[in-house]
Amino acid sequence: MRNIYSLVMSAALLGCSELAAAQEILSDSAQALRQQTDPKELANPSVIGMGRSKGVVVRYEMLPRFGLRSEGKREDIGNSETEVRRNNKFEIKAYIPILNRPHFKMVVGAGYFLEEFNFKQPEGLEYPLYKQLQDKDLRSLDGQLIMLKPFNEKNYLLVRVKGELNGDYGKDNDIPLHKYLKTSVEAIYGWKKSPLFSYGFGVQLGYTFGRQSIYPAVLYNRTFNDRWGIESIFPANLTVRRNLSDKSLLFAGYKVEGASYNITVSPPFQLNETVELRKSEIRARLRWEREIYDFIWFGLEGGYRYNHRFDVYDGENVNANPLIESHIKDAAFLQVDLFLVPPRRFLKQ
């Protein structure tokens, strides 16, 4: 019974993790693609009150000290326990509109993500997973294409196609880069009921489990008045928005995040070129966005992270049981970012 429950939870949470990653892209894309909201404009996912479109984003996140315990599922791997001093993340991404016609809009995006683990006693690390994480950072390099097709003033289709290289590759990497390639597609068909309310239903096709899987998504963007609103792609993300002013916004809610990385191996994993690290977590978060000067904004976000999965799988056999199951202690996190938005004079044109 416990195994069945674990399987169901894993499917739900890891499916949400992919959608959570898509939620920020879709929200940013919807804003980047939109014109000024007008009752007569063609349909799109955005609503009055949403934050300004993000063109370039630079983000840094820090998680303080937390414990990590791992259990090998093969006799030659064994168990271990350690303490992570710091878990730092750095990200930069950009969106560029390349087509802006009334009945079809297109944006290209690119991003780079880096995650590093610093252990309490790195010189004494013998456990294969910890040693690999200490020696090489986890990286993600992605490119994506986002398309919005308004059919009329009420209906629209939003599609994203994304390819990313996820793993511990670097200058000394001798594993072909295609080993790290992950692709995904998201599509949402929506209804624009009014300038204050938009919703839609869709699916996500990706490689969350190392093979293509499909997950549902429900988009719900609604502004209730000049102060309060909701932005969500359920069940991956639910955010309540408070508009403090036209230069300051406050957000509160939850988000499911996850990723899959192929990492090069060392003994006792001699049988394969790479193994796959799958991680997912649920975050309760509070976020503040504030204008610094016209087109320059900053964001400050903090909250609490609940870890669901941090396990290692056979990189060649996607259906195999995990090689290592790990438990990460829950911890608080702090994130700061700087982003560029269109100048106000462009929005008034």
TrEMBL record:
Secretion signal, residue range per the UniProt entry: 1-22
Recorded coiled-coil stretches: none
InterPro entries, per database record: DUF6268
Keywords: Signal
Pfam families to which the protein is assigned, alphabetical: DUF6268 (PF19783)
Residue stretches making up the DUF6268 domain: 132-314
The keyword Signal appears for this protein: yes
Keyword Signal: yes
Protein name: DUF6268 domain-containing protein
Organism: Nibribacter ruber
UniProt lineage: Bacteria, Pseudomonadati, Bacteroidota, Cytophagia, Cytophagales
